[in-house]
Amino acid sequence: MDDKPLTPVEPVGSTFERFLEECGIREEVYGEAIKAVIAWQLDRARIDRDMSKGALAKQMRTSRTQVDRVLDPRNVAVSLDTLERAARALGKRLDIRLVEAAE
Q: Domain range holding 55?
């Protein structure tokens, strides 16, 4: 194996973000990515607390089916109120911020 340092390569083409914009799917992809991260964080907190989905549903005063929707990374049709209740049931809080858009 050669121990020569790697030579940096100049990027070719546009950025991934520009690609998404050109395809007209940037907002959709970003929305799905955000929901996937939130779902992962909630499920991680649930597992760390050794809490079943049924117990989480009971804490949230909702159904197990609703918990499955909250934890489904592909389901972007979950209300902020529901996400907040899930966070509180897990000893967390939801933090949503409005920031300047990158140009």
A: 17-89
